[in-house]
Design goal:
By secondary structure, this protein is an alpha+beta fold. Helix content is about 30%, strand content about 25%. The protein has helices at about 80-110, 120-125, and strands at about 10-15, 20-30, 40-45, 55-60, 65. Strands 1, 2, 3, 4 and 5 form a five-stranded antiparallel beta sheet that branches. The protein is globular.
């Protein structure tokens, strides 16, 4: 979906979009531009691949509908950084879910941020 094979998506959740429930995957991104509004992402500790001035986080505008059976588990065993990210996500899980739903509500009203996924089109593919 995002032109990058095996991009990790940290959350898979059921959310409402235009009155129906869909399963969405929300990806991690290591180089969120510094001018991206804070309502579009949840910040995480920087990765070694994060460029100066950019942010690492869960990028809501890149979420996409998915069939749950197409998802693979992301394993964090024996990976200290992945375990740190998992702990951060668990702390912010309720906020992330609330923010993702708010994003979908905005998107449904026609507010499509630049570079966001085309949710209406992607729903036709799942």
């Amino acid at each position: 979906m995002l032109h990058k094979a095996n991009r990790p998506c940290v959350l898979i959740m059921r959310l409402k979009y235009k009155g129906k429930r869909y399963t969405f995957a929300v990806p991690l991104r290591s180089n969120i531009a510094p001018n991206v509004p804070k309502w579009q992402y949840y910040p995480l500790p920087q990765r070694k691949t994060t460029k100066d001035g950019h942010r690492h986080g869960v990028h809501y505008i890149k979420m996409f509908p998915i069939r749950r059976e197409d998802a693979d588990l992301y394993h964090t065993e024996n990976n200290m950084y992945a375990a740190l990210i998992k702990a951060e996500l668990e702390l912010g899980e309720k906020e992330i879910i609330k923010d993702c739903q708010a994003y979908l509500d905005r998107y449904a009203t026609g507010e499509h941020p630049m570079y966001s996924t085309d949710i209406d089109y992607l729903i036709t593919l799942v």
